[in-house]
Batch of 2 targets.
Target 1
Amino acid sequence: MIMGPSCGMILADLGADVVKVEPGPAGDNSRRLTGAAIGFFPTYNRNKRSICVDMKSPSGAALVRRLAAGADVIIENFRPGAMEKLGLGYSALSGINPRLVYCSLKGFLPGPYEHRTALDEVVQMMGGLAYMTGPPGRPLRTGASVNDILGGTFGAVAILAALRERDTTGHGSLVQSGLFETNMVLVAQHMARAAIEGRNPEPFGDPEMKKPWPVYDVFDSADEGEQVFVGTVTESQWRGFCEAFGLNDLLSDPELANMAQLAAARPRIRLRVADVFRKLPKTELMARCEALGLPFAPIARPADLFDDPHLLASEGLLPVDLRSAEGAPNGAPVVPEAGIPALPVALGTGRPGLRRQPPHAGEHGIEVMQEAGLSEAEINMMIAEGIVSVSAQESPAAA
């Protein structure tokens, strides 16, 4: 639902012609998700074309093999063995196209767990991330599908490396990215700490967590319900902070002379800082922190970000049509001008932008088959027999 689509989206945003092969007739099931998953399809499927194929039929599988014969890259995100059962595994397709780079995105790389079913929650729980996120005794999934998205990113990186290798060898290769292994990259710093200290670290959700800085917390402002995160992570930041917020008594305290002493005194420092911040409006609090060059951030909610001045000025929001989220009421977003975040990179030509809206299911089926060399008779047969499903925009009459 996310790992494969995000991998394809990254390549599409960077300029690749990505054809999304969906099951017919209704297309990818993520189109119809609701609730917390309602945004999956429009977020991760921009800049792609769509063809809906019954891959379980011999003719459908043959069509996909024909597409693979002319492709640079295949991305698949099925359970282990699923593509092989369809005759679409790496060995079969590389035999047709030796230059093919075949990317398998899996729950686990090869090993004892490789046949398990994985979700982002599964690998977060078993990989220590949920433990590190929640409060003691209450493991908590992160608020985004971090492993799916980052796993798709690692898949794209591996694809690009394999394409460069192909420039030298002339041959494609099989590359893989694992959801569980992605999670372990995120938890590596905590594993390193556990090895150094000889014990499990306290989770970030533990209010008693021993942070190494005097100020590194979320505070209430004078505006009801409005909070700000503020951090002071160097001694020079601490000095400027105390001077700007009238905490000179802490600055002159001989028991708070270095960062180790300051970190040990966090509980009493936090109470003093909270009392000062509680009397300041949010805008004034942030303006002072920005003038000092301190790390700070308002606690934003997702809907707040559509109007973020930095995202708007930096071309960081793309005008994606969200109506492809079929689970949305009436198929339309509540925020009509909502933009979806772009890739977090800038190239010499600027930010990667929007070339294609998320496709309707099967929207490009006819043109994709034409490009693969199918005759008009073959295309009509595929559609008539239900092997390929096309949208109204791509009906034979319209073509």
Note: The radius of gyration is 26 Å.
Target 2
Amino acid sequence: MIRRRPTRFDASPSAGKPGVAPGAERGRRRRASYVALVALATLVAAVCPMVVGNLSSTAGSAVAVATGSTGPASALDGAGAAVMSVSVVNASPGALTTTSTVSGSIVAREDVLVGTESEGAGIRSILVEEGDTVQEGQVLALLTSDLDEIALSMNDVEIERANALLTQSDSAIALAQTNLNLARKALARAHPLSKSGVTPLDVLEQREADVLVAEAKLATAQQAKRVALAERAIALVKHRELTTHLERTRVRAPTAGIIVERFARVGDIATGKAPLFRIAKDGLFELEALVPMRMVDRVGPATAASVSISGIEEPLAGTVRHLSPRIEQTTRMARVRIALPAAATPRLGAFARAEIRTTEQMQIVLPLSAVQSTTDGSQVLLVANGTVETRAVVTGRRTAEAVQIVSGVSAGEQVILRPGGLARAGMRVTAVLPAAVIASRL
């Protein structure tokens, strides 16, 4: 058999190149095709990140969607086509924790104004300053009291005089009583002698007169004692009055607390109308703030709050002590008092901000990512019998992570956690619970 040699015109285009075999040429073309496919897949992933992000986190689901093949994260429908897996959450009751921020100023829980009843007295010295802690009854300031001190000294003399008169009357009473006893004994001896004729009648009459005189002197001494007792009582009452006047020149703290404001100055004339000091009773402070009407029904006594005060690095743990029942007409807000710890000593009037945390039980609570906002309102995507359907919902209160569903979704229905991407109404999908939800229910 005669074998014909191929000529240069019969060879393939690649055959004309020296050193290039036909098998190598086919490998080069196959590698170029793979590179083009990888570049196309990279472009699709860059343009449509939400497609991959909305797929189930199960291994292999992103590849299944990108390539169209079935795998562990996908299932096959009746026609043998791949069914996409979507993450869902079960609609169920839950607690919605809301954090609201209010601001205001630091005030004393109870202000006590300290004044004096002494009119026209000058302030001689001040014994405390703002920020000092005082006890009940402690002297805060001294007023001029020269006249009161002089009057009190004169009253002391009157009391001594009344005591001396009382002592003198006691001695007079004792002397009169002794004379009366002697006169009565003399009269008793004179009676039998007068009957026997030994003693004349005039002697008997003299003894009787001596008894009457002694009785009169005793009565006089007793009356003098009553006068002395009355004078001493008057002097003691006057002493109490003068002591009260003198005490008014000593301004005392009516309660324990912290001096937060001092109005008094040395040399000023004190009056009963102007206060001299302001005391924060028991050293307790609060944050006074305004809360909007929408928060009034959620805030109550003992509600926890975190208070941040200018000048204090760490926030303080406070609680709502009082919420005013009145809404101010100009601002449509209510005043709230947040009690601070007893050990806290912030500056009065300092600016402060409080975060009030309130927790309420809701019928249906969904993650915020499960709700879509549209021009007509809000909607969610549900999975019912393996099919996606759109449902309009009415939302209520919301936080940064969750939202209350007022109507539109019933308990137990499966809602797509992150709607959008490839999931559309009418699609056949496989519902998969997120791993975090599954782990929390084990």
Note: Residues 155 and 239 are 6 Å apart (CA to CA).
